């Protein structure tokens, strides 16, 4: 066939190809034919490719070099990945194959282009996803290891290598056996590690987690999941996490929840667990045990003087001393600032006493911190199980009550729970509640005890004394409820009520013709209130009672607690015009220097000095001294608790001005008091009676 015929035959042949095909003349290196697929690939009509040189349509230096080599006869075939540039300027990846054939004695190059765009896009997407997967694996805090079902390593991230301290050599060698051997040698409990790993390999779909320790000190949590493809297991994914710090933090939280943060001793929660165990053992074996409440005496003074940091160091020293007094099976717990609880196992009364004495002896030794030497004593209350209770709350309550009894008796000792004293906390609680209800319900009332002029026998005053008859408790002595009221602060409300009632009654008597001062007792807490003076003034003003018809009885302790503040208040009361006296004089610690400055009108000799008169020479000397001192300071003197005529006569001879007591009259309600005065109110002045409830 001639040349044109040959070209036509080749053109017909290449049209049957799905890939793009050129025919290139071997002499001119120009395209002599191109199929429709080539036109599609290059984005142009196939005929437009005719007569163009192959080099002209080359898009890479490699192709240009090839056609130059063909032109010089150096090479005549090539198969490689390449790029072609379409006529719109875009570049298309192809697999290019060039073959030299002979046709009618002439060289013809057949150039086949396989479009790899779709394949390249798939490859790019795959690489992108793999890159994302690698980035995800590397960014996770967990170490990831992927294996096949046989255990061969298929992949891991750097976090995995760091957790297991894998060397660079192991990472580059890709030696699975060496990596697995390294991991096994790093585990503390190899037997358990092998057992768990074998179980994982035997169950291809097993999902599990476990924890193991490494020799490096790390604690590793391993989570194992099957890797599946199309529903079939093909391998395993191991996730490793370092939980060392998390575990330590969890343990620390648990310790803090059960221990005192300063001393490290058990707190109430852990103590409760140990007491519960001790109770179970006692019930099973019949053994008794002791629960002891240890409270430091006046520890607040240490904090106030040296600061809380110094106090904490003292508590640490106290902890060591107490621990040194116990056996290893016993427990010492810290429940509060300066309160410790001892659980002494298998201890009867004798054993508990021995422990208590050891603690007291250890505490009696001098403390020395920062060149400061001081003493810290303690008070101990003891309760025995099962005699004193069979649960923590009951034992604690009774040991605590015994400890407080030690405080009341002078501190620095120990005391066992006593059944007859156990009702005190409950009765105090009942009294406190009933006392508050009594004020609202009108169950309080005032009785008045006459105050008598020793020289004339006339009634020259009255002391208001509170009385309480409760519907349930009956008559409750002031000695019972007044200390509770002072401790709780309720004494302020009671004091205000007494002030108002006494002032109204004094005004009523004055209007009826009985004109003398009425005295009331003032508590320390009431006296220290910022608006106390204003309350007194407003109460007097409300009923129109002259201030000199009210006398306030103050104890020595009130006046010396803060002498300068007390002096300021006393001067304000003196300017107001009320009378003031020192109650129970001689039982406190009055300074004569302060006493001289206080605007006091009367001294009231305590009944304890009157009781043995005139036979007790000591009391005789004391009373004579008080009277002489008062007269020298131009103060009136009144004695309370006078019950016999010899007592009255002695006081008269000694120069005492007034007295009160059973010799003349006990404290009386309003009608009895008025009857005891012996004269009715003048008809022109109607008597005003106070409703006392």
UniProtKB/TrEMBL annotation:
Q: Which domain of life is it from?
A: Bacteria
Quote the CDD domains the UniProt record gives: EAL, GGDEF, PAS
PROSITE patterns in the record, alphabetically? EAL, GGDEF
Name of the protein described by the UniProt record: Diguanylate cyclase
């Amino acid at each position: 066939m001639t040349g044109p015929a040959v070209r036509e035959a080749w053109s017909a042949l290449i049209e049957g190809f799905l890939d793009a095909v050129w025919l290139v003349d071997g002499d001119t290196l120009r395209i002599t034919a191109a199929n429709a697929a080539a036109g599609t690939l290059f984005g142009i009509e196939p005929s437009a490719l005719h007569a163009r040189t192959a080099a002209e349509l080359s898009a890479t230096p490699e192709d240009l070099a090839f056609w130059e080599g063909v032109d010089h006869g150096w090479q005549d075939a090539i198969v490689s990945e390449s790029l072609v540039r379409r006529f719109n300027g875009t570049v298309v990846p192809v697999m290019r194959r060039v073959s030299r054939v002979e046709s009618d004695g002439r060289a013809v190059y057949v150039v086949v282009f396989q479009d790899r765009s779709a394949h390249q896009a798939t490859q790019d997407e795959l690489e992108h996803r793999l890159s994302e997967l690698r980035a995800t694996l590397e960014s996770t805090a967990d170490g990831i290891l992927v294996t096949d079902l046989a255990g061969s390593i298929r992949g891991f991230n750097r976090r995995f290598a760091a957790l297991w301290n894998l060397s660079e050599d192991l990472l580059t060698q890709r030696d699975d056996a060496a990596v697995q051997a390294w991991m096994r040698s790093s585990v503390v409990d190899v037997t358990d590690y092998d057992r768990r790993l074998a179980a994982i390999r035997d169950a291809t779909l097993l999902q599990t987690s476990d924890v193991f320790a490494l020799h490096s000190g790390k604690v590793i949590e391993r989570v194992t999941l099957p890797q599946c493809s199309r529903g079939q297991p093909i391998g395993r994914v191991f996730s490793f996490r370092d939980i060392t710090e998390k575990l330590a933090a969890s343990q620390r939280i648990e310790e803090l929840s059960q221990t005192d943060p300063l001393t490290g001793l058990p707190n109430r929660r852990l103590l409760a667990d140990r007491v519960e165990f001790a109770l179970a053992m006692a019930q099973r074996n019949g053994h008794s045990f002791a629960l002891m409440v240890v409270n430091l005496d006046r520890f607040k003074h240490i904090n106030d003087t040296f600061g809380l940091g110094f106090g904490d160091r003292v508590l640490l020293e106290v902890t060591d001393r107490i621990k040194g007094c116990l056996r290893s099976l016993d427990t010492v717990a810290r429940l509060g600032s300066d309160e410790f609880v001892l659980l002494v196992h298998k201890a009867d009364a004798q054993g508990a006493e021995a422990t208590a004495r050891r603690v007291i002896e250890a505490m009696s030794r001098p403390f020395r911190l920062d060149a400061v030497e001081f003493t810290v004593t303690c008070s101990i209350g003891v309760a025995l199980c099962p005699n004193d209770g069979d649960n923590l709350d009951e034992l604690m309550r009774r040991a605590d009550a015994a400890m407080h009894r030690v405080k009341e008796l002078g501190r620095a000792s120990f005391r066992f729970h006593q059944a007859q004293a156990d009702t005190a906390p409950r009765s105090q609680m009942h009294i406190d509640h009933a006392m508050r209800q009594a004020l609202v319900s009108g169950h309080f009332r005032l009785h008045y005890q006459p105050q008598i002029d020793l020289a004339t026998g006339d009634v020259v005053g009255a002391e208001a004394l509170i009385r309480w008859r409760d519907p349930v408790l009956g008559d409750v002595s002031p000695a019972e409820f007044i200390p509770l009221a002072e401790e709780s602060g309720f004494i302020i409300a009671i004091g205000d009520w007494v002030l108002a009632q006494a002032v109204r009654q004094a005004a009523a008597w004055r209007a009826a013709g009985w004109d003398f001062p009425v005295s009331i007792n003032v508590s320390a807490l009431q006296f220290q209130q910022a608006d106390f003076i204003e309350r007194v003034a407003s109460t007097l003003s409300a009923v129109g009672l002259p201030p000199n018809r009210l006398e306030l009885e103050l104890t020595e302790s009130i006046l010396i607690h803060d002498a300068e503040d007390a002096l300021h208040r006393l001067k304000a009361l003196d300017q107001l015009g009320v009378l003031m006296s020192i109650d129970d004089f001689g039982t406190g610690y009055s300074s004569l220097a302060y006493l001289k400055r206080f605007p006091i009108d009367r001294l009231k000799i305590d009944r304890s000095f009157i009781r043995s008169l005139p036979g007790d020479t000591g009391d005789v000397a004391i009373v004579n001294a008080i009277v002489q001192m008062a007269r020298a300071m131009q103060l009136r003197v009144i004695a309370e608790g006078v019950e016999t005529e010899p007592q009255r006569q002695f006081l008269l001879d000694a120069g005492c001005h007034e007295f009160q007591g059973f010799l003349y009259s006990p404290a009386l309600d309003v009608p009895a008091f008025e009857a005891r005065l012996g004269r009715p109110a003048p008809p022109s002045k109607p008597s005003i009676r106070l409703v006392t409830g």
